[in-house]
């Protein structure tokens, strides 16, 4: 299999005195893990929260066989670690966004908290995979704001979900089967809030990952650079290994469509939409007996009702 092509770039931007974003990656036998985080809290706490998120997620996943369960656990551990640190008086209000891509070739898993984003460029078309956890994004989904209004709203930076803000993390999970040449972009809102999707698409289509990441960060700064800006660009190799993983994905995800995953009692056994014949529920003799008894009882009640006194 050809080597994975990827690049990571981060910059404080033109208006911020320091960079509170954090990025990181770890190559694995299955592909790799990539994480971007955007800290918040002021002073040094945002920088610390973002760094802790990236470190915790990579530490948990770099030597562990990938699965939706392992990815969720990585985010939960990061949340616990940041939440503990946030209890210190000097760290009050500390939190961070986090978006992670796990390549488990030929599959991809994505976990997401906050308003950092994951995009997929496939056959020249760009798709936003994640949903922002922000006040304005929720109003857009409710039909109360237009996307154009949200981009300039005074509360556009209000985050409704972040690692470290609460004892329990609320994490979005997605899964999909990869196609050769797929390109992923992970970025903070310092990039997505400045550059429109048409620009992102053109840069990702035109340039290899290293050049694309540099150009995207440079463009965000040229167009004002109001915030820290970070980008991770990952290109899937042309030769993908055949593979079945020990975890199951919904049918659409296994066929290549990005699908939101919902973990239940057994996170590694995600339900498919169509049950295989041997797994379809069967009606036993006890079920038949209960149905017959129910029919007799209903019939007896109805007979008494129509017969009258």
Would you mind describing this structure in some detail?
- The protein has 309 residues and is an alpha+beta fold.
- It is 34% helix and 23% strand.
- The chain is built from nine helices and twelve strands.
- The strands form two sheets. Strands 2, 3, 4, 5, 6, 9 and 12 form a seven-stranded antiparallel β-sheet that branches. A five-stranded antiparallel β-sheet has the order 1-11-10-7-8.
- Helix 6 runs antiparallel to helix 7 (209-222).
- It is globular and about 85 Å long.
- The N and C termini lie far apart (83 Å).
- The relative contact order is 0.17.
- InterPro entries: PP2C, PPM-type-like_dom_sf, PPM-type_phosphatase-like_dom.
- Residues 5-236 form the PPM-type phosphatase domain.
- It holds the Pfam family PP2C_2.
- Keywords: Membrane, Transmembrane, Transmembrane helix.
The secondary-structure element order is: EEEHHEEEEEHHEEHHHEHEH
Largest sheet, if any? Answer: 7 strands, antiparallel
What name goes with the CATH superfamily?
Answer: PPM-type phosphatase domain
By CATH, the topology is Phosphatase 2c, domain 1
Q: Count the helices. How many?
A: 9
Number of domains: 1
Cα gyration radius (Å): 24 Å
Give the overall shape: globular
The counted number of beta strands is 12
CATH class: Alpha Beta
Uncertain stretches: 264-284
Structural class estimated from helices and strands: alpha+beta
> Span between N and C termini?
83 Å
What integer is the average pLDDT? 84
Domain PPM-type phosphatase: 5-236
Transmembrane segments: 288-306
InterPro entries: PP2C, PPM-type-like_dom_sf, PPM-type_phosphatase-like_dom
Keywords: Membrane, Transmembrane, Transmembrane helix
